[in-house]
Design goal:
It is built from 29 helices and six strands. With 646 residues, it is mainly α. The chain has a six-stranded parallel beta sheet with strand order 1-2-3-4-5-6.
Length: 646
């Protein structure tokens, strides 16, 4: 804005709209001055003896007069935002008001832009001013929109406290139908529900304070309110009710996140119930940043790749996600609601990662409607966006794949392919859970054979390693995959796949599996990502960790693990028809990168295993910090060599 003061230092009254804006500003200033006893601002006609900082001395330069007003409001906005961020009481909204929305700032700037064009000075509008307008449109007042994410049980706990206080019993014990009816009635009701003096736990107070903050700040700095571990329609309605009770004027869009295999199977029924709910559908509007494509109601649904893979294995996970997307697309089309699928992918294949172009083209028909949303996490951000040239190429791939998936979506698979894929999914899930959840002492084996315990001491994760105390089911997907990646075994990606494929081959379906690989983009991308992971898997290195770190009574567990790995490698090679992993010409670059880069990680793994052994053998070694620092360096080295942390 300061630079524009120089660019637009021209003697001009501007357009009628600009003059009206200046008159309004003068009127507001005079009214505020009379109310506070401050000097009243008067418009001055002469442009002689003007002072650079005094807006009222620039009536002959209308553009600068408005720009100085804009600059003063921006200064007030910074002060206001800093006080709120520091937890100070918000200053009173009197006198010169701060900008509270991006639209307010953009509106003022567009008055100048339009006036320049109307008065024949359009060439000045197309320079620095237009660049600033583009920045305002892209970044707003908050630079970027932040999503808010909270687990569904935390909202249920908050409503528990409310209903218990009101003598209605415990909300969490009600049946789903009762919850939905109660929430719908309260959403229709005009009376307040949550008393200001509600006595509750610190955890509940944190949830309520979050909604109070949204109401105070407004929703413009925020994107979506994501509900992790969504299991039912009441989880979504609960967040809408908490927004209403906090006094949020324009509700944040609420995005259910379906994560586990069971939740993905229930997702279509959950959304069907919501779309049939009278209040929900009537209040399902499209946010301004979302293209409507002819339909006003808009619903965003997030799909979790990490937890579903940890819960059921990768093959069952991707098939469950595929079926959920098909069903959600059909339901949204029936209700004439614009659906946007938000793919919660991690960096590694075990958490839904991999080449985005291939992933987009393998989505079911209708699930990519001109746009899609994905997460880009951790070291993958630098990999895809670290340099401007790479970032441009990445965006080009995103754009091309979305356009192609929209204009030429893949055809639906035959019923025979679907039946076989369903059997593969069930068989792989059963085998995966047999190994991971049903094998006695597998948790102990996992913690002994991987750096799971040591990783918890590093300041790497964005969330706690566990949601609560317990076994594998309570462990978060990120540390689960991270630990296996460090040992180069990557068990969660392929466990169960070998048994499923070998069962179909034994049933005489090898030719059909090979046809599925050639003709069905979804199955092809699934197999090729598995193939890439297996090419990076190193049985010798993983065996070294086991020999050095796993107690003798647990080493018998590894036999089933090694047998499943061998079955998977053999099965993938038979399906692709290649004698070696990544043996086709299209994968020559990947094969070269793995053969030259990954072996360099071997000595880092050997060093890591030995450091872990020394840390575990001594209760409090004198050189503990040196050993732990060495371990931290090896973690970064392995992650860099593998291309992902997990």
């Amino acid at each position: 804005v300061d630079k524009l003061l120089w660019d637009l230092s021209i003697a001009s009254r501007g357009s009628e709209a600009l003059q009206k804006k200046l008159d309004d500003i003068a009127g507001e200033s005079n009214a505020a001055g009379k109310a506070t006893g401050a000097p009243v601002i008067k418009k001055v006609v002469s442009v002689a003896a003007m002072h650079w900082q005094n807006a009222h001395e620039h009536s002959g330069e209308a553009y600068r007069q408005l720009l100085l007003h804009i600059r003063d409001r921006l200064t007030k906005t910074i002060t206001y935002a800093s006080d709120v961020a520091a937890g100070k009481p918000a200053p009173p909204m009197t006198g010169l008001l701060p900008y509270t929305t991006t639209e307010q700032l953009a509106s003022d700037m567009f008055i100048i832009y339009n006036s320049l064009h109307e008065c024949g000075d359009g060439i000045l509008a197309e320079g620095r001013l237009k660049d600033l307008l583009r920045r305002i449109h892209c970044f707003g007042l908050s630079l970027t929109r932040l999503d808010i994410r909270q687990e569904s049980t935390r909202h249920a706990d908050a409503l528990d406290a409310v209903t218990s206080h009101l003598g209605l019993g415990e909300y969490s014990t009600w049946k789903e139908e009762t919850k939905v009816q109660y929430l719908t009635n309260e959403l229709h009701s005009q009376r307040p529900l949550i008393p200001k003096d509600l006595k509750c736990s610190d955890a509940v107070r944190e949830v309520l304070d979050t909604f109070d903050m949204i109401a105070e700040v407004g929703t413009s700095p925020f994107g979506a309110y994501v509900i992790s571990m969504t299991r039912s329609a009441s989880d979504v309605l609960a967040v809408r009710l908490l927004q209403k009770e906090a006094g949020v004027k324009e509700h944040m869009r609420v995005v259910p996140l379906f994560e586990t295999k069971e939740d993905l199977e229930n997702a279509p029924g959950c959304m069907e119930l919501l779309f049939n709910n009278s209040w929900y559908k009537a209040n399902l509007s499209s946010p301004p940043q979302v293209p409507n494509v002819g339909w006003s109601p808009h619903q965003e649904v997030m799909l979790g790749y990490s937890d579903s893979a940890k819960d059921a294995g990768r093959l069952a996970s991707v098939w469950g996600l595929h079926k959920a997307q098909e069903a959600l697309v059909k339901i949204s089309q029936n209700h004439k609601i614009k659906l946007n699928l938000f793919h919660g992918r991690g960096g590694s294949v075990g958490r839904g990662g991999g080449p985005q172009y291939l992933a987009t083209l393998s989505q079911p028909a209708g699930s990519v409607q001109g746009w899609m949303r994905v997460t880009v996490q951790g070291e993958v951000i630098d990999h895809y966006f670290g340099l401007s040239s790479i970032a441009s190429h990445t965006m080009e791939r995103y754009t091309t794949s979305v356009l192609q998936a929209t204009l030429k979506p893949p055809g639906a698979p035959s019923e025979q392919y679907r039946v076989i894929m369903e059997r593969l999914s069930e068989a792989s899930c059963d085998q995966y859970r047999k190994i991971v959840y049903e094998t006695p002492m597998f948790v102990d084996y996992f913690r002994a054979a991987t750096p799971d315990f040591e990783l918890k001491g590093l300041n790497l994760g964005s969330r706690p390693a566990k949601r609560k105390q317990g076994g594998i089911e309570t462990l978060r997907a990120i540390p689960w995959m991270f630990a296996w990646t460090q040992t180069r075994l990557q068990l969660p990606v392929w466990a169960g796949v070998g048994a499923a494929i070998q069962a179909e081959i034994a049933a005489g379906n090898l030719a059909t599996l090979q046809a599925m690989y050639k003709e069905w983009p979804f199955f092809q991308s699934t197999v090729e990502l598995l193939e890439m992971v297996l090419a990076k898997t190193n049985k010798r290195i993983a065996g070294y960790y086991e020999k050095l770190l796993v107690p003798g009574e647990l080493q018998s567990i590894s036999k089933e693990v090694w047998d499943e790995l061998d079955r998977t490698m053999d099965g993938i090679q038979k399906v692709t028809g290649r004698s070696e992993l990544l043996g086709n010409e299209d994968n020559s670059n990947s094969r070269l990168a793995i053969s030259t880069r990954v072996p360099l990680v071997d000595p880092i793994n050997v060093l890591q295993a030995n450091v872990m052994s020394r840390l575990r053998q001594e209760d409090n070694p004198p050189n503990y910090q040196e050993l732990f620092d060495a371990f931290a360096i090896t973690v970064q080295g392995v992650a860099s060599g593998m291309g992902w942390t997990g």
